[in-house]
Specification:
This protein has about 475 residues and is α+β, with helices and mostly antiparallel strands. It folds into three domains: about 220 residues, no CATH class; about 80 residues, Pdz3 Domain, CATH 2.30.42; about 70 residues, Pdz3 Domain, CATH 2.30.42. Helix content is about 45%, strand content about 25%. The protein contains 14 helices and 20 strands. The strands form seven sheets. Strands 12, 13, 14, 15, 16 and 19 form a six-stranded antiparallel sheet that branches. It has a four-stranded antiparallel sheet with strand order 6-5-7-8. Helix 1 crosses helix 3, helix 3 packs across helix 9 and helix 3 crosses helix 11. The two termini are about 30 Å apart.
């Protein structure tokens, strides 16, 4: 089903983007010859009026072809008047070009906004104001003076942050000084947190040593990662973990502490399923510096509002957070602190992330991921690169400026501009595909030997 989820969100994002171009063109009286999901030869479709609605062979995007638009060099076709589309007013062509990215960005805003109005589950620690549950010994948090029970009321200039804001920002700022304001015993203190740099795959990420306080009566399993110890031990989604090594689970950090202190030795779990309690044993594996069993806990609460204004503000803040973090990541690429090879991903990486998200969070998590991907797609298409919508917008602006001095863009220049852009996009696609497969190969063949041995161990059946 993870593959199905990937195909669904990929097609949805393409259709939304191209529908933006299509509907605005129709509203402005611009003839549309083709509405295609995919590139290359036509596989199937139907015609209504002047427009051929089709699915094409290469499912890596889509396009809308306007009558007279010069796409022959890309699609291998030669039909339509050469100047009909260009004969329309520049403001009309501008609106058509920008409509696709705008529809993607609007989708990214509406998904979390609609979700919070109808009520959706989100991790309690991620949406509530952060209270520190545990400070890891000798960590950056301990060195900064943070203590369990501290309530973080401002972080890096952001007032009333959530754990999601903090954790994502910490990851992107290793070895950077970050001001943190906490409330302790009725007093406000300003401390300086400097996240420790930790190797995560090929990347250096920040680690604070803070764990959130999440009160629990037990742990409900939300999803299972394939091939991990939880699956091998017989744990299933929907199970409830009542105790680990004989100790009742009353807080999530206690469960993580038990895994940490196991040092890779088997742990005994008391698991409830459909009213029946069983004893299971699982052997944690060391992954990215932490011992894990390979399941996602359900630490969620229902988040809901009846206010449309609050919902829109939530959608904006959610997307602004991702835009800000993306900006930080790109800044680190340009200043040499982050590798473009490890930070940039294409369809294969997106497919992996979608499948993983579906496995642990189902359709609700996958739809939220679609919102984030839709935001990235919209922003990417606004880049002033030929062939992309941003390149079309750039040409329209240049055309307008040249018109002020009585000059025009020649058709030959337009075609050369598009050809250069097409080559650049092909090179970029080649880079991300090769990069995706190289990283995929690393994940398959470069696992630590100790982890391989642990994964091969067979856990005993329930007692």
């Amino acid at each position: 089903m993870g593959i199905v989820a990937f195909v669904v969100i990929l097609c949805a994002m393409i259709v939304i983007h191209e529908f933006g171009h299509f509907i605005v063109a129709k509203m402005l009286g611009i003839s549309v010859e083709t509405f295609s999901v995919g590139f290359g030869p036509r596989i199937l479709g139907f015609r209504i009026g002047e427009t051929d609605y089709r699915v094409s062979a290469i499912p890596l995007g889509g396009y809308v072809k306007f009558r007279g638009e010069n796409l022959e060099m890309i699609q291998g076709e030669s039909e339509g008047s050469i100047d009909e589309f260009l004969a329309h007013a520049k403001w009309k062509r501008f609106l058509v070009a920008i409509a696709g990215p705008v529809f993607n960005i609007a989708t990214a805003l509406l998904i979390p906004a609609i979700g919070i109005m109808i009520g959706f589950r989100d991790s309690a620690d991620q949406v509530q104001q952060p209270v520190i549950g545990r400070v890891i010994q000798s960590s950056a948090a301990e060195q900064s003076g943070l203590l369990p029970g501290d309530r973080i009321i401002a972080y890096h200039g952001r007032v009333n942050p959530t754990w999601r804001d903090i954790e994502l920002d910490v990851m992107l700022r290793p070895e950077e000084d970050i001001p943190v304001v906490v409330e302790r015993s009725g007093q406000r203190l300003t401390l300086n947190l400097k996240p420790t740099g930790r190797q995560f795959g090929k990347e250096m990420v920040g680690e604070s040593g803070i764990e959130p306080y999440i009160a629990l009566n037990n742990v409900r399993v939300l999803g299972i990662r394939s091939g991990m110890p939880a699956e091998q031990a017989g744990i299933k989604a929907g199970d409830t973990i009542l105790a680990i090594n004989g100790q009742p689970v009353t807080a999530w950090h206690q469960f993580k502490d038990a895994l940490r202190t196991s040092n890779g030795q088997p742990v005994d779990l008391k698991v409830q399923r459909n009213g029946t309690v069983s004893d299971l044993r699982a052997t944690p594996v060391l992954q990215d510096g932490e011992y894990r069993l390979g399941f996602a806990p359900d630490l969620s609460i229902i988040v809901k509002t009846d206010s449309f204004a609050t919902a829109i503000r939530y959608g904006w803040e959610y997307n602004w957070m991702w835009m800000r973090l993306t900006g930080v990541a790109f800044k680190q690429i340009f200043n040499g602190r982050r590798s473009a090879r490890d930070a940039v991903g294409g369809p294969v990486k997106i497919a992996q992330e979608t499948i993983n998200t579906y496995d642990v969070a189902g359709w609700s998590g996958t739809i939220k991921l679609m919102g984030m991907l839709s935001l990235n797609l919209g922003i990417f298409n606004l880049l002033p690169i030929p062939v992309l919508d941003g390149g079309v917008i750039l040409l329209i602006i240049v055309e307008g400026l040249m018109g002020l001095v009585g000059m025009t863009l020649t058709m030959n220049f337009r075609e050369r501009f598009q050809q250069v852009g097409f080559v650049l996009v092909l090179l970029l696609m080649g880079f991300v595909f090769i990069n995706d497969f190289v990283n995929l190969g690393r994940s398959w063949f470069n696992k630590p030997a100790a982890q391989e041995q642990q994964l091969e161990q067979k856990s005993p059946p329930p007692k």
